[in-house]
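JOB MANIFEST
job_type = single_chain_structure
chain_count = 1
residues = 182
[input]
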Amino acid sequence: MQDSNLLTETETQDTYVKQFLSIGEVIIAPNPAYIWTVLGSCVSVILFSPHRKISAICHAQLVEKEFQVDVHNQSESWAYKPNSTQNDFRYLACSVYYMIDQLLKLGIRKHEIVASIYGGAHVIGKIKQNIGSENADSAHKILEDQGIRVVKKDVGGNKSRTIRFFSDTGVINVKYLDSFAS
């Protein structure tokens, strides 16, 4: 799934900050950035405001096992806690809720945000549990519960992939790898 609007590496050198996204990291990009990562069973969720040209991206490794949010009573039992120094972005729910919170703090309305989901491959063949599928399904459910529309996704399969993302345009390039797992 390659986007034909992808800028070349040379074109990015002068206008974009280049950043590699590691497992358990989140990047909020209010300024143009060229962000790339490598995904196996891990999932990257990208939140993008086409109107404001601001993005957020995570590289989450695990599903939040005790994820629950009661929207009516505003009670929460997930890992992301506003203003906490102990947020663990290896967990999908923590990462996604943090990104939503940060975009809202930048003045972006939730209905302006669109999402993309990448990764979630079944690359650990000796394990029956499909962690990648669980990660991708959880990402989709969290976004759906938050009323954020998923406009692009490339999930599943049995190959790792790299994604390259331009934060101000929403352009995403995916390349499959023959062997690598995250």
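[summary]
The radius of gyration is 16 Å.
The chain has one domain: 9-176.
exit_status = 0
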